[in-house]
Specification:
391 residues; 3 domains; three-stranded antiparallel sheet; 12% strand
């Protein structure tokens, strides 16, 4: 008789509790349905886009997950009055469930904040992906600590102190995350790296696609993806081409080597021939007038070509290249344009062209650079100069 009465109470009260639990989930689905059919539509029609991210990250939908827990906590003792021990276990499970759901809601809020921040142009200059990932890790750690402290019946501080004994192991496990977090903060704070920057580092040579807590993702020019540890971006050297991209031009700095044996003073016959070259015709006339005036004023015997001031074919060639560059519409003429000799070596005399192309696109830049040197190499023999080439 006693067993029959106990079984009857257990069945009836369990049925009542299950009914409340089912009612809680029905209310959950109803609340989510109302939110999706009413609030979602209103929010999506609004002009501001910020509230759309609250919808997209499912903050409200996840918040509704607390409804069954609220129902259980409110009615569990009413539906199971004769089973206080079972009520205690159910309430414990419900509390742990609440902690997990609240963590999920906070996750959604962090995602929403990240999405809203990424809507602004400043997000490319100062990405916060690493901070967002760190915030999520902190939320998980806090969630775990709260669950452990609740199950153990201890305060969170006591649990943290207890975990201090395994801090070395935790530091070892989270070493890369900690270093990555510090690295991402440094990269962002000092504006060393942005989304969309073109960088070169080891095998990586391309555009930064993502900066997160542990890695930097780079899409190379051949469309392959290279990942670089975030911490190594701070400790190792890398080249960021952002300055070039934001400037008025892309630098061309390349040399050709002139055979030393082909450099000589210009004879009258050579000067006559060079005077028909349009780009240096005026320069040549003015230069000859200056030289003749100087030699005459100083009573210099010019029967020997080495006496006094004389023009060389290499000097005229430099003047020709300078005039050619000055007339090139593909160059930025507000930036440095220079033709200079470098220290001679076993390969001859390096003649360096230092200019900036207007177009910074890689393909166009290479075409401009190639066109310039095609012309220079083809023009050199007209000045009786030879380009050095190892035989």
């Amino acid at each position: 008789m006693h067993f029959g009465s106990y079984a009857t109470k257990l069945f009836s009260q369990s049925l009542a509790f299950i009914s409340i639990l089912i009612l809680g989930f029905i209310l959950l689905f109803v609340a989510q349905f109302i939110i999706k059919k009413t609030i979602y539509k209103v929010v999506l029609k609004s002009e501001t886009k910020y509230d759309d991210e609250i919808i997209n990250t499912r903050v409200l939908v996840r918040l509704c997950l607390l409804i069954p827990s609220v129902m259980v906590k409110h009615y569990v003792r009413l539906t199971l009055p004769d089973f206080p021990e079972a009520c205690g276990h159910i309430l414990s499970i419900s509390t742990i469930y609440d902690i997990i759901v609240i963590t999920m809601v906070l996750f959604s809020l962090v995602n929403a904040a990240d999405d809203i921040y990424n809507m602004h142009q400043s997000s490319k200059r100062k990405p916060i992906t690493g901070v967002v990932q760190t915030a999520k890790i902190v939320l998980v750690i806090v969630c775990v600590l709260l669950v452990i402290s609740y199950l153990m019946g201890k305060s969170v501080s006591t649990v943290v102190i207890g975990l201090g004994t395994v801090s070395a192991v935790l530091l070892l496990l989270f070493q890369n995350i900690i270093l990555g977090f510090v690295g991402s903060i440094q990269l962002t704070a000092y504006d060393m790296l942005r989304i969309g920057d073109w960088i070169s580092m080891g095998q990586a040579d391309g555009t930064v696609m993502e900066i997160n807590l542990t890695t930097v993702k780079v899409q190379n020019f051949d469309n392959t993806i290279t990942t670089i540890p975030t911490a190594s971006m701070v400790t190792n050297q890398f080249t960021n081409w952002r300055g070039m991209s934001e400037s008025g031009g892309r630098r061309i700095m390349r040399s050709i080597n002139i055979d030393i044996h082909s450099v000589k003073f210009c004879t009258p016959e050579m000067l006559e021939r060079f005077s028909h070259i349009e780009r240096i015709k005026d320069y040549l006339e003015k230069k000859e007038e200056d030289i003749e005036e100087y030699n005459r004023a100083n009573n210099i015997d010019t029967s020997l070509i080495i006496n006094g001031r004389q023009q060389t074919n290499l000097g005229l060639f430099r003047a020709y290249i300078q005039a050619y560059l000055n007339s090139n519409p593909n160059l930025n003429h507000n930036m440095t344009k220079m033709v200079r000799q470098l220290q001679s070596n076993e390969f001859g005399i390096p003649l360096q062209i230092y200019v900036f192309s207007k177009d910074k696109n890689w393909v166009t830049y290479e075409q401009i650079q190639s066109d310039i040197f095609d012309h220079i190499i083809a023009a050199a023999p007209l000045f009786d100069l030879k380009i050095y080439q190892k035989h």
